[in-house]
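Entry:
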Amino acid sequence: MNPIDNVTSMVVFARVVDTLSFTEAAKSLQLSKSSVSREISQLEIRLGAQLLNRTTRKITVTEVGLSYYDYCTRILSEVKNAERFIRHFHEEPVGSLHLISPVTFGCQCIVPALNRFIANNIHVNIDLDLTDKPVNMLEDQYDIAIVIDREPPEHPLVKPLIDVTWGLYATPDYLQPLGNIETPDDLPRYDYILFRGPAHTISLPFRKDKQKVDINVRSRFRANNSVALMQSALAGSGIAYLPNYIARDAQASGQLVRLLPEWRMDTYHAWMLFQSEHTLSSRVRHFADDLQQQLHRELG
C-alpha cells in the first residue's frame, strides 16, 4: 500500500468525522456524495479496518476510526501550515535581499531606506554592494541594481526611481562679498568645485523656458566624489556643482545656498533594474515600492 494514495481519502474522512454527514462533507469539499462514499470505502479496504458505522439515519465513528482521525487532523494541520507559509512568503517579506548601487547615491539615499526596511521587516537580511563599476544583471546575481544615467538602461525589467537634478551651491559667507549673481553670465569669474573630468574647464548647461546657455567655468578643486565636493563647498572654497540629493540637507539647514534656482541644469535619472519577473519576490517588491515612495517624498 502506497501511503500517498491515502492522502486525499484522509482529507475526506476527516471532514466526514467533523460533520458526521456524507452530504455536508461533500458540500464543503465540493464533491459529489457518491465520491465521498467511494473514498471512504476504498480507504477502509486499503487499511483493512472499518472506520465508520453507517446506518440510514446516522454515522458513528469506530474506535479505530477515532484513533485514525487523530493522525488525519495532524497531517491536515501541517498542510495548512505549509499553505500559510507559502501565503506569507508572497505577502510578507522574508529571506535575503541583494542590491548594488553607486557609492554616493547608495550611502545618501539607499542605506537610509534599507535601515527603515530592516526595522519594519525582521525576517529580511540585506546584502548591499556599493560600487561605481558598471552593472551587468546577466552576470551579477542581484535582486535590485540601482543605476544612474541620462537614458533608460537597456534591460528588460526597469523601473524609474527618481530624477537626479544638479545645481550650483555655496555657503552664504562665500557669496556675501561677491554681490548678486543674477544670470549665468555672472558666473565665470568665481572659483568652482567640480566633479573630476578630463580638463579643469567645464561647460555648465543652463535652461529656462526657451533659453539655453552654456557657461565655461574653471575649477580650483576637483574630486571624484560628490560628498568631498560638498565638504569643500562647506569650507568656503568655492561654488560646487552638486546633485540635489547631496546638497539637500545642507541647503535645508542654511549651510549652503542654491544659486540661480530658476535655471535648470543637468538632469540624470535613477533606475531600478530587476533580474526577471519570476524573481520578484515579496521582499523585492516591497522594498522597491518603499524606496520609490520614500525618495519621491524627499526628493521629488
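Residues 63-91 form the longest helix (29 residues).
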